[in-house]
Amino acid sequence: MKIKIETNFFCKSNQWSRRMKKIKKIVSKILLTNNCGFKNNTFYYLNFIFVDDKKIKIINKTYRKKNMPTDVLTFVTPLNNRNLKNETYCDIFFSAETVKTDAKKNSTNFYDHLTHLIIHCFLHVNGYEHKINSDFLKMKNLEKKILNSLNIKDPYLYE
């Protein structure tokens, strides 16, 4: 079995509804680059849930003990079932207000910033972390490489 990826999109905020068509295209384009570490013989279920700051703040407080909104939260559950089929279930939450604010703060296009966040999430889905500096640098360099392949400027230039 090759890589299988099922994507589902859930719009839970009116701030996202007009953007959904373009977001689906962005996700498809990223997946076609196949540079985010998705593994053969694995079935991925990727749920994209688009919410507002109020909702993501509740989720962030509940699961990360941080009482504040954030741009994105990624929850990954890998399973190995008895049929020897590896499955990875992912719920990825985005907040429109925070993504928009961060894009403005970084002087970048909303969709370019969102593309970066999606790539970042995909890398988390596939085991990349950034808790220590060497892992952060590895992840950052891969993000830049993927963004470059999509003709999106380096988001780290303004750090």
Folded structure, characterized:
The chain is an alpha/beta fold and 159 residues long. The protein has one domain (4-158): 3-Layer(aba) Sandwich (Collagenase (Catalytic Domain)), CATH 3.40.390. Helix content is 43%, strand content 23%. The chain has five helices and four strands. The protein has helices at residues 20-33, 53-64, 96-105, 110-125, 133-149, and strands at residues 4-11, 42-51, 72-80, 86-95. Helix 1 packs across helix 4 (110-125), helix 3 packs across helix 4 and helix 4 crosses helix 5 (133-149). It is globular, with a radius of gyration of 16 Å. The protein starts with a strand and ends in a 10-residue tail after the last helix. The model has no long low-confidence stretch (mean pLDDT 91).
